[in-house]
Amino acid sequence: MKKVYITGAAGLIGSELVRLFVSVGAKVKCCDTLIGGLDSNLTRFKDNIDYKPIDILDFKSLKEHMEGVDTVFHCAALPYEGLSVFSPKVVAENIVGGTVSVASACIANNVKKLFNFSSMARYGAQEPPFTEDMPRKPEDPYGLAKAQAEEHLELLSKLHGLSFTTIVPHNVIGVGQRYMDPYRNVVAIMINRVLQKKTIIIYGDGQQKRSFSNIQDCGRAIWHLYESEKDLTGQVFNIGPDDNETTIKDLAHRIGHHCGIYPRIDYYPDRPAEVKNAWCSSEKIKTQFNYNTTKSLDDTIVEMINWISERGPEPFVYDSLSLEFITENTPATWVERLI
């Protein structure tokens, strides 16, 4: 029987992994603090999982709960890239300290394999598409924390034989994403605002480009890596599409189109340290595992609109995380809670 542990299980990627492993009858243990996830992502599986609301920084509780599993998927992250510029402490301690805590629990429990979820932020402002052989060149505290977490895993692998693989998803979106979060998840934020008949907020001129990955496509990619009999220790794999990079302004118009309106857009100054263009190449996983994406950006947007409409649009929640300090460069949308 497959025995897995998933941190950040109520988040978008974590809950998709829960779904996949429950569907094959695996023994699933998991944890989450619900800072960035949705409780509803786990309640449907409550009879099939061993879930505890453990903070990954609580090493003792994490180690005890992790006992008896073969593989760990470390999805917990506080993935707040933009916010990290003004809240570096909480982001760094959760990503770096949290990853080390998870890795230490893996070593203590003789876990066979750790899959660590990093971020496209590790590549910084290099020329896209980003490839796995590019150096780590983060531009913000979030990207730096992700890079440092990877370095810790590399060292622990040398010291203690920890077997780990780094997965780099890019802008994962889909049903189950926290859409009332004002600091991240641009597609979900735009849909939530449009359904509330509000303007769409764009930072800068809207010409910055991103690529978006459907959560189910990402889940299949992760499954390929999990099932592999190859030794993937220390390797990095980008996952996501290679062909759907789009400007943020175009994204706003796509969302408006699928919501049946012509969107009104409010433009605000660029967010500090935000990379202009960022998307990845997934050629490595395609070549090695014959992996391809199947879901288009537009189809995913429609799925999200239908799901958020059914649940109901919600006010944005600022209280789960706060700004550690405010400067003249802090986005007014956050300071004045305009989103």
Give me a quick take on this structure.
This protein has 11 helices and 14 strands.
H/E element string?
EHEHEHEHEHEEHEEEHEEHEEHHH
CATH superfamily of the largest domain: NAD(P)-binding Rossmann-like Domain
Which strands sit side by side, in order, in the main sheet? 3-2-1-4-5-6-11
Q: How much of the polypeptide forms β-strand, as a percent range?
A: 15-25%
Shape: globular
CATH C-level class of the largest domain: Alpha Beta
- Number of E-state strands: 14
Low-confidence stretches: none
Radius of gyration, whole Å: 19 Å
Can you give the mean pLDDT? 97
Whole-Å distance between the termini? 46 Å
The CATH architecture classification of the largest domain is 3-Layer(aba) Sandwich
- Helical amount: 25-40%
The assembly state of the depicted protein chains is: single chain
| Biggest β-sheet description | 7 strands, parallel
Structural class: alpha/beta
